[in-house]
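# nightly structure sweep
# worker-07 picked up a monomer target from the shared queue
# config: single-sequence mode, recycle default, output format = structure tokens
# input follows
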Amino acid sequence: MFIATLIAAESIAERDISEAVAQMTPLCEVADWNWIDEGRAADIVFSEDADWAASVLHGRFDRSDVVIQPAAHRAKRLLVADMDSTMITVECIDELADYAGIKEQVADVTERAMRGELDFAAALDARVALLEGLDESVIERCLAERVTLMAGARALVRTMKARGGHAILVSGGFTRFAEPVAAEIGFDRAIANYLEIAHGKLTGTVRKPIVGSDTKEKTLLAAIDELGIGVGESMAVGDGANDLAMIRRAGLGVAYRAKPIVAGAAAARIDHGDLTALLYAQGIPSAEWVTA
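# output follows
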């Protein structure tokens, strides 16, 4: 059995769902549909042709997010998440570069790396080298002035943890941002790159080995093993090419407002809603979300 979850950016009409179900039935056996939150999110339970269901639903609900997954292990016990442009709204290295007056130059490299056009580690080394001599105090200033949590981040992590889940933040960014962000949101731990600093200044280097795609994938697989859960009980979410490996290996791999290379490869994509869409994808109504 499969579950298709419809998640509206604004609202969904009951009539539209009924018409979609009717359109699915030539190739899908629809068992039922029900509201998770009336007008906002709904589940359609069906069997048989998931590809046909996807084509129907994405076509009819092009202004909403549609997540189709096996019904088994829908509730996830592990979340592994990217940070920049996923759990927070910015790319931290680009914002640090802005204080150095070189944001445009650095942001162009960041964008190309996230699109998979550049080797991630080499691109990170090149960008960090441009920050050599930047005062260490700028990190705390950037954290306070520029870093904003993505809408729904707290609710996603805190709700999953309240239900017995485990959450890990794994970032190709820097520990000086990832650790406080993880603590504020409620992650169990954070893994990120270490910016090297000497005499109160950035040295223009990052400690090796670099946290990249391989680290993210290994972190996901190791956590599955440590928790003694099945792969189907895991979820990974990110937006850039360095998230692809973990997204492909997770039980539910989610491209969140992602670059085309990621959106095209992920099992699920969220383009319209915020991170609470991943709670709806687990069948959790808003009345059960934990936000404090």
